[in-house]
TrEMBL record:
Entry's transmembrane regions: none
InterPro entries referenced in this protein's UniProt entry, alphabetically: ArsR-like_HTH (IPR011991), DUF7347 (IPR055771), DUF7351 (IPR055775)
Pfam families: DUF7347, DUF7351
Name of this protein: Winged helix-turn-helix domain-containing protein
Amino acid sequence: MSDTGSGAQPHAAATRPHDSAVTDAFGLLGDGTRLAVLLAIWEAHDPADEDNSLSFSEIFERVDYDDPGNLRYHLGKLEGQFIERAPEHDGYALRVPAQKLVRDIVAGVGDHDERLEPTPIDQRCPFCGAGTKVSYREGILFWACHECDGMTPGRDFASFDPPGPLAAVSFDPAGLDEWTAEELRAALAVRGRRRTREQFEGLCPTCSGQVDARFDWCDDHDPDGCHACGLRWRVGARFRCRTCENYGGASPRRLALFHPAVVSFYDDHGVSTRFRADEYERAKAVYDLVLDHEVELVAEDPVRVAVTARHDGDAIRVTFDEDVQFVDATRG
């Protein structure tokens, strides 16, 4: 049914969370006062300012603590791992790990209570023509059709939540209030494109580990409701991080847009493949382009997968190898 890929399984990183340095770092944050200290320094943080430190008295006032000696004890515990002394400014500044931690807190990472109930948007399902909706739960932003099986024909879509999935991507809850429902659909596309590109280029977007890639395909595929694989497309790229085992997938029709020759092909026809998170109509147009790409499993040994894009009587064909890397681009 598929190419099995490289099979590299270095699990040594799985022991890292048990290393004393890592457990000690998490242990340091077990006291609420220490988190309050990091947040207090963060409030004074200005990326454009050379001095991002906060004096002891300012921290004491912002944290609203009643014991200066005990606060110094907490600062001493944080120093080195999360904060550093800034003698020239007579204060304390956040180290990079602490900045990342506070950004995660501000973004709402770990908050699984935020929800967005299914909200209709002005985009029809590409498979049945029904209206589609965006929703959010447990840190995932969904785009789905509630009238058909979406990207999973052949599976019991009634068991999916939401049903009829079309796309999904991890999304920090702090961003939910920043966008309209349509903009969330575009933001989903931007986030998904960025994460897929990093995986395609061998970098895990979650832990910065190395990513292995391969193609899977269905030998007996029925695009209208495949009970063999349950998926809409016969051929799919699969990505897996060697370190954190983060897993992802993408259709090669979408990966074709990562080749500069394909971008130039569309540019030559006055069609842009670029869009921002606040450009909903552009995001829809690019999605429609991708849907029209033709995918062919050219060979199984060695694996070759080709994608053809057409516009105004012109065409370009790009070919991938078994490691989901471009090996050829032919126009005409």
